Amino acid sequence: MGKLYERIDGRIRTFIEEQPVFFTATAPLAGDGHVNVSPKGRAGTLVVIDELTLAYLDFGGSGAETIAHVRENGRITLMWCAFSGPPKVLRVHGEGEVVLRDDPRWSEYIAHFAKEAATGQGARAIIVVRARRVSDACGFAVPFMDYREERTMHAEHFNRQSDDEFNAYCERKEHVAQSLDGLPALPLPLPVRTD
Q1: 114 alpha-carbon distance from chain centroid
Q2: pLDDT tens per residue across span 49-91
């Protein structure tokens, strides 16, 4: 049976911090817009800042739907599934905010992340989520899956690039500056990091 939680602490916080993958869900305000669900991973890239605030690093990729949707309306849901141990699905429904690399708060937020994740090239933004609703569900239908190891290709690829090369990569991607629905996403060229 599902349960509501007032805050992210104790067993809930531990559960979040132990999961190797989570999912983000966002949508534009337009009823015919594209709903987006994205898998997120990479160790050290998600942090619980306090009992109602989480943040994760947004890295270079093919699109920037989450950023565009959060900039437009702030709605975001994060979801974790227990693929081992007792069954559980946990959701944090919240209000998201995009902290870009030239935001004065960038240095404050980036300090929360693991050094190897925070110092590498490829971080485009930090998504800060303030929880409005924290709930779990049984997860009885979620399969058991064994976690083997981190994939290192993403970090290795972007860490070989200079700032100019990373900017060129972002500028080549059709849906980085704007979403599939034409919403503003990342400013290009990418702002220079303030840390």
Answers
A1: 15
A2: 999 999 999 999 889 999 999 999 999 999 999 999 999 999 9
Domains of the chain, each with CATH number or no CATH:
3-172 (2.30.110.10)
DSSP class of residue 175 equals B
Tokens standing for 39?
Answer: 């898998």
Sorted by sequence, the CB contacts under 8 Å of residue 20 that are 6+ apart come out as 41, 43, 147, 150
How many other CB atoms are there within 10 angstroms of residue 28's CB atom? 21
E strands, the chain, are: 3-5, 22-26, 36-40, 46-50, 53-59, 75-81, 89-100, 123-137
Burial class (CB in 10 A: 0-12, 13-18, 19+), 20: middle
| Conformation bin of residue 97: beta by default, left when phi > 0, alpha when psi is -120 to 50 | beta
pLDDT tens digits, one per residue of 131-146: 999 999 999 999 999 9
Q: What sign for the dihedral angle of Cα 150, 62, 69, 193?
A: positive
How many residues are given for the chain? 195
AA letter at 150: E
